[in-house]
Write a structure and sequence with these properties.
The chain has helices at residues 18-31, 72-86, and strands at residues 3-9, 41-47, 58-67, 94-103. The longest helix has 15 residues, at 72-86. By secondary structure, it is of the alpha/beta class. α1 (18-31) runs antiparallel to α2. It has a 4-stranded mixed sheet with strand order 2-1-3-4, with helices on one face. Helix content is 26%, strand content 30%. It has one domain: Macrophage Migration Inhibitory Factor (2-Layer Sandwich). The model has no long low-confidence stretch (mean pLDDT 94).
């Protein structure tokens, strides 16, 4: 943990490499001090089709899934550090958002195959 999922509008690909997004989110999560390097999993998904109101505007939205047990200050720090790292990227007019979502430890399952 965490699973960092970056969703973004595909027009961002014209000016920003997906690897830049992935690295910025990874660096923010690492700087939080909440996770070990090898536990941070980051991936991105570009969207061709989307609508947010009547004006089509570029977006980046990061969902950070973490196991339950962190307090609100830790979660706020995490989202702010990720947002801070993303702000270092020169996006065209883009709405950038970050949310932290808890996964119940009791229902989470994993296996290495």
């Amino acid at each position: 943990m965490p699973h960092c999922i970056i969703e973004y509008s595909n027009e961002i690909d014209k000016s920003v490499e997906p690897a830049q997004l992935i690295n910025a989110v990874y660096q923010g999560a690492l700087k939080s001090g909440l996770f070990k390097d090898e536990d941070i999993k980051t991936r991105s998904i570009a969207f061709d089709s989307y609508q947010a109101g009547s004006i089509k505007k570029a977006f980046v939205h990061v969902t950070v899934k973490i196991l339950s047990g962190r307090n609100i200050e830790q979660k706020k720090t995490l989202s702010n550090l990720i947002l801070s790292q993303l702000k270092t990227i020169d996006f065209p007019s883009t709405l950038v958002t970050v949310e932290v979502v808890e996964i119940e430890k009791e229902s989470y399952a994993r296996v290495m195959m």
